[in-house]
Amino acid sequence: MKKKTLVLEDNVLKGIVYKVEREGVEESKAIKDLLKLGLQSYVVELYKAGRITLAEAAELSGVSLRRMLDILLEQGVKGNVTLNQQIRALEYAGEL
Questions:
Q1: Which of 17, 20, 69 minimizes the C-alpha distance to 47?
Q2: How far apart (Å, rounded) are the C-alpha atoms in residues 89 and 96?
Q3: DSSP state letter for 45
Q4: Are 60 and 49 in contact, with CB atoms under 8 Å apart?
Q5: What is the pLDDT along the chain (96 residues), one digit of tens a residue?
Q6: How far apart are the first and last CA of the chain?
Q7: pLDDT at residue 63, rounded to an integer
Q8: Distance (Å, rounded) from C-alpha 56 to C-alpha 90?
Q9: What backbone torsions phi and psi does residue 33 show, to the nearest 5 degrees?
Q10: CA 43 vs CA 2, 13, 22, 26: distances in Å
């Protein structure tokens, strides 16, 4: 993990303060959560546009392929992996 210094716009700071007050979390956690949410949204858009693969989307989001599929479905994005492909991948993983 690396430390970064940022200059944030007032509306972003208000969003952070809102999350801190409403959820009772530390400011640093609120910032991390909101950054992660923004990154995830960006990754979903890249995947939807066909600019990255499912594996790339999962890697950028820091989640498993299965979780990435769930995230995409939650966002209304259908995956391009068939059930048979998923079964074969799980069988292959079990052989490792």
A1: 69
A2: 11
A3: H
A4: no
A5: 899 898 999 999 999 999 999 999 999 999 999 999 999 999 999 999 889 999 999 999 999 999 999 999 999 997 666 777 778 888 888 887
A6: 30
A7: 96
A8: 18
A9: -60, -45
A10: 21, 23, 27, 26
